[in-house]
Prior knowledge:
Layout: E1 18-19, E2 28-31, E3 34-37, E4 40-44, E5 47-49, H1 58-75, E6 81-83, E7 97-103, E8 106-107, H2 109-114, E9 118-120
Parallel strand pairs: 1-2, 4-7
Antiparallel strand pairs: 2-3, 3-4, 5-9, 6-7, 7-8
Domain TNase-like: 29-118
Pfam family, one: SNase
Protein name: TNase-like domain-containing protein
Amino acid sequence: MTRTPHPTATDPEAAWFQLCAGPVRYTCVVDGDTIWYRGEKIRLLDIDAAEVSSPGCPREAEIGERATYALRDILNEGPFSLTRDGFEPNRDVYERLLRRITREGEPIADRLIEQGLAVRYRAAGPGWCD
């Protein structure tokens, strides 16, 4: 049995996330840095995770899969906040909302970085296959 987290005064967002599958996506995890939440596709700010849809090598595929499951598990731990960075555009070139996800003020992206499943975002990319 799954239990949906409940919003709090600190973290007003809450949902039960599954892995995305099929054409209809509402609240699910695409990969380690992209989710669907209430029908909006969201790209997490600050991190870059390995690709799962078209990985460049087996190592990237494996890290990407682990990052996807980890993000799902972290989101399902409890309520969270979505915030926009005023220095970033509202959407990226793929029309995804750009948001930072925090829980009790701490970016959840940091947990993926600590686990070695994501890196701080930089234009050149992380080189998962190097």
